[in-house]
């Protein structure tokens, strides 16, 4: 588990595909100091297991992860958001993030507006049930607050600290970001679906 509070920016040292999988090596500073093989690390919000060290932190990325996330788009020299695993007793300053990305979505705009620095991300109708104003969402592993839902876009207002300390400042129109919806929202949707087909609800609605 993670909190969505980025510890540092890493640098992609190498990214090599082999069939449906890939090997990713990321250079970093303090984040890697206490990690051992098998530990979890969030890279752009994707939970990966450390498999070794070879000029940086080494990860093996499976095909399903490549398919669902923007890791497949990485190139040497790219910056990535890094967060180490949550430890018992750590402060949860963001929100609970699993590192299991739900969607890869495109940036609509990322700019300064009269309302402040605004990041807009295109979302589909299927995404909206997990998003509510002032709710939580992780974007490339960064814990953020949903500012507004407008038409086909999720609008987020970024504070200076987030702009300065994450890769979000580098995102341009057309770039892809990883979205992980709040786990509580996903459970709420699941329970609502279950409730919608119970015998009591069917009776209440006059179907039986």
What brief labels describe this structure?
13 strands, Elongation Factor Tu (Ef-tu), domain 3, 208 residues, alpha+beta
Summarize the structure.
This protein has 208 residues and is an alpha+beta fold.
Helix/strand/pairing class, anyone? Answer: alpha+beta
Rounded average pLDDT: 91
Q: What's the shape?
A: globular
Query: What are the secondary-structure elements, in order, as H or E?
Result: EEEEEHEEEHEEEEHEHH
CATH architecture annotation of the largest domain: Beta Barrel
Beta-strand proportion? 35-45%
Instruction: Give the low-pLDDT segments.
Output: none
Tally the helices: what do you get?
5
Distance between the termini: 43 Å
Strand order in the sheet with the most strands: 10-9-13-7-8-12-11
- Report the oligomer: single chain
- CATH fold name of the largest domain: Elongation Factor Tu (Ef-tu), domain 3
């Amino acid at each position: 588990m993670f909190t969505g509070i980025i510890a540092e920016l890493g640098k992609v040292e190498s990214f090599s595909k082999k069939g449906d999988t890939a090997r990713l090596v990321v250079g970093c500073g303090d984040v890697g100091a206490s990690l051992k093989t098998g530990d979890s690390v969030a890279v752009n919000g994707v939970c990966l297991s450390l498999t070794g060290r070879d000029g940086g932190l080494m990860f093996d990325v499976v095909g399903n992860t490549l398919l669902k996330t923007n890791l497949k788009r990485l190139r040497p020299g790219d910056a990535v958001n890094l967060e180490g695993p949550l430890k018992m007793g750590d402060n949860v300053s963001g929100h609970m993030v699993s590192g299991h990305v739900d969607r890869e979505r495109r940036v609509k705009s990322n700019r300064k507006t009269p309302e402040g620095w605004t990041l807009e991300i295109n979302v589909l109708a299927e995404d909206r049930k997990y998003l509510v104003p002032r709710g939580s969402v992780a974007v490339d592993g960064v814990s953020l607050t949903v500012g507004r839902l407008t038409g086909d876009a999720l609008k987020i207002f970024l504070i200076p600290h987030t702009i300065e300390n994450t890769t979000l400042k580098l995102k341009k129109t057309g770039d892809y970001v990883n979205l992980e919806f709040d786990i509580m929202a996903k459970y709420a949707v699941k329970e609502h679906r279950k409730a919608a087909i119970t015998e009591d609800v069917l009776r209440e609605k006059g179907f039986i």
